[in-house]
Amino acid sequence: MISEINILIVATVLLLYAAWSDFRLWKIPNPIVLALIAVYALHAALQLLAAEDVGAALFSSSGIAGDIGAGLLLFTLGFGLWSFKLFGAGDAKLFLPIGLFIGWHGMLPFAIFLLIGGIAALLILKLPMPLQLAHFSVAVRLEEIRTTRKIPYGVIMVAAALCVTALRPGFA
Length: 172
Description:
The chain has eight helices and no strands. By secondary structure, it is mainly α.
């Protein structure tokens, strides 16, 4: 039987893979984004099946309508950033499933965690790398990112989304 916790685990694994792919290759594969949307659709179907009030589950801001609204708003924002060459296409696409999973009421916490993650990334990329860590592959990759000035925003987005999802009552 599929449970909410199984859906959360699958979504978390997919989000972590998207972040890792963005960190390593500056690419978020389309199949990962589509898989995340499919996992959310399964979650929404389970919500509808378990709901006593289908109208509230569908149309409330804390229900499926709020999730879809958050996803579309974030996707629109990502598309705008991509059109001005401030964001990668994969990052813009990843905003849709992230919005689905964080929901409308998770938008403010997501923005706060995104800000914290952005500041942390800025500090990591600006501060010098300790020599003891310089030989690790992650440190080498951070140096490449520092040199090219191309930020893998998907990593920051996924970290913020996972923080919000962990706090969301519907998934806890």
